[in-house]
Amino acid sequence: MRSGVLAISLLILMASAVSAEIIRLKSGHSLDGDVLKEHADAIYVDIGIDVIRVPLNQIQSRTTAEESAHAAVTITDRQLYQEASLPRKSIRELAEEYGEGVVLIETPGGLGSGFIVHASGFCVTNYHVVEK
User: Fold this and answer.
1) Around Cβ 22, how many Cβ atoms within 10 Å?
2) What's the rounded Cα separation, in Å, for the pair 103 and 125?
3) Tens digit of pLDDT for each residue in 11-55?
4) Which of 5, 48, 63, 122 has the highest CB neighbour number within 10 Å of its CB?
């Protein structure tokens, strides 16, 4: 019993030690993921499908997902839509934030999905879903 509680406590501590970061590389690319381990010459980043070793001498900057989320957001309002410069987020965070805007569309001629793009309920979908 005691070893089970210890094992669970250890897992919780390990999970809380993992931090989501945005790592900008000198090549211009960036990685979004959880930093699992740090060594003197490299870090190991879980990008969701694999763990990647990134040499420290290839990293231009590191930003936590929290810091990136608090970055200034600029919004340009158009008649039908808005454009925004938003901070980078992980796929999981984006799915949680915008997932409720995804809709199922059923018509006599098609079936598909779309997403809400305006407060009035305007939806974007593929043409084959709504064609007659």
Assistant:
1) 19
2) 9
3) 444 444 456 888 889 998 888 888 999 999 999 999 888 999 999
4) 63
